[in-house]
Amino acid sequence: MQKVKKLRLECCICANTDPGGYELLYPLPRGEVIRCRRCGLIYVNDLPPGDDDCQSEEYFTYWGIDVYQKSEELFLEEFHQVIKEINRFNPLTGKLLDIGCGPGYFLTVARQYGWEAVGLDVSKVIVNLAKKRGEKVFCCKVEEFALKYPAEKFDCITMFNILEHLVYPAQALSAVRRILKSDGIIVIETPTEDSLVRRTANLLYRLSNGKCDHLTRQLYHCGGHHFGFSPKTISLLLASQGFRPVSIRPALSSPKIALKKRIVELARARGLAEKLLQLILAGAISLAWGGSRLFGPQHMANRMRILARPNMPSQ
């Protein structure tokens, strides 16, 4: 069994710094995927720390901004369902902050439901696009925003498909905690390690002795993912920053949006094996969506949605 020789960063949950305290899951060329033996957190090792990838210029260049612009109606439809869920937990609307807001589609929906919504993003291009749509958006990270506007307090803070991209997710959550009201709510959506597709990738990798690693590389290396969370590890991370989850449930991404991304990857793929992988993934997306309608999203969902509140001082 191969060992982890050097750690890029300590574990952001339990601060484990011992390379022997990690299990090497996938020794992939671009960055090995490891799991902390103490808390179970999975992350990509050997990627140089630096600016967070999520919603950077490179991220939108990779997928193509037009994918997001042409999918506006699909995003709006999906976000209507999300805001209804938030309102069930927080019936009184107030100030809302969307971190990694992209073109501002969720801000648009939130305002329609009575929220005073603002957004953050680190991509100047996408921030300008959101502003052209009439949204109030700041171009910065949440850590910078919390320092610049310490008096700002929000009733709800959202992070859709953001946390897995951050190099330092604990620091981001710490900043969120400072600007969230004591009775506020944080909403996180992120891929789940418990999903069927990740379990399948794990099985294929191990049965082939590492030769069938196309799906694994796709899951951990495309789009700048640094972490893979499970319901257990996301709960531990939130607890370490003073939050308590009140709901963790499966969340299926819009199949049409996911299929558009597969088309982008298919056009970019080199070789028959890579092209075949994208076709298989496209079929898996359709199968997952259909299966969720028959058997329920808990069996087929590739993501999870977490709602959490700050711990009270006595907790």
Task: Fill in the keyword field for this structure.
single chain, 315 residues, Rossmann fold, 4-stranded antiparallel beta sheet, 20% strand, globular
Descriptive report:
The chain has 315 residues and is an alpha/beta fold. The protein has a single domain (51-310), classed as 3-Layer(aba) Sandwich (Rossmann fold), CATH 3.40.50.150. Helix content is 44%, strand content 20%. The protein has 13 helices and 11 strands. It has helices at 57-63, 65-70, 72-89, 105-112, 124-132, 142-148, 169-179, 196-207, 214-221, 231-240, 255-268, 271-295, 297-300; strands at 22-26, 33-36, 42-44, 95-99, 116-121, 137-139, 154-160, 180-191, 227-228, 243-251, 303-310. The chain has a 7-stranded mixed β-sheet with strand order 6-5-4-7-8-11-10, sandwiched between helices. Strands 1-2-3-9 form a 4-stranded antiparallel β-sheet. A hairpin with a 6-residue loop joins strand 1 and strand 2 (33-36). Helix 3 crosses helix 4 (105-112) and helix 11 packs antiparallel against helix 12 (271-295). The longest helix is centred in the last third of the chain and has 25 residues, at 271-295. It starts with 21 loop residues before the first strand and ends in a 5-residue tail after the last strand. 38% of the residues are buried. Residues 51-55 and 291-299 have low confidence and may be disordered.
Strand and helix layout:
Blueprint: E1 22-26, E2 33-36, E3 42-44, H1 57-63, H2 65-70, H3 72-89, E4 95-99, H4 105-112, E5 116-121, H5 124-132, E6 137-139, H6 142-148, E7 154-160, H7 169-179, E8 180-191, H8 196-207, H9 214-221, E9 227-228, H10 231-240, E10 243-251, H11 255-268, H12 271-295, H13 297-300, E11 303-310
Parallel strand pairs: 4-5, 4-7, 5-6, 7-8
Antiparallel strand pairs: 1-2, 2-3, 3-9, 8-11, 10-11
Helix pairs in contact: 3-4, 6-7, 11-12
